[in-house]
Amino acid sequence: MLLQILHYPDPRLRRKAEPVGAVTDEIRALVSDMAETMYNAPGIGLAAIQVGVLKRVVVLDLSEEHNRLQVFINPEIRESEGEQIMEEGCLSVPGVFEPVTRAGHVRVRALDREGRPFELEATGLLATCIQHEIDHLDGKVFVDYLSRLKQQRIRKKLEKHQRLAM
Ligand code: NI
Q1: 98 catalytic residue (yes or no)
Q2: Which of the residues 18, 64, 119, 133 is marked catalytic?
Q3: Sign of CA dihedral 85, 86, 90, 95
Q4: Residue-level pLDDT at 162
Q5: Which of 42, 55, 81, 148 has its Cβ near the most Cβ atoms within 10 Å?
């Protein structure tokens, strides 16, 4: 089922998501719907909060073929080091791409869609995506890292789009 993606500056993107207690069929259904919504957009990552669900669930797929879905439930960054700058975009901030500085190497722990814990070392694009999605779970959006002026411009642009869409 396709879910509706909230757009910045929607205040619902500012809420903090709650940890998932048990990975149930309901959570697996959410994961499937989120994956379908992400592929349809199309995008490479989506956090549950972007579809209005306050749970710590993230899906990612960095493959060209859209056949390498990665699921992170209750993701936590255990270690981070180094620095990299990558151009980021976000399904909640359509049409905006800006460079953001983040850790270049992270070690993340999470549960998979069966509820099994795993750890992953990530660098490059995957490291940036994981940090971007975990930010969403804490109510943060990548534009928060940009200058005040850029944030105002983006807000105006998106508010105008939303008025036109009504
Ligand atoms: Ni995003």
Answers
A1: no
A2: 133
A3: positive
A4: 76
A5: 55
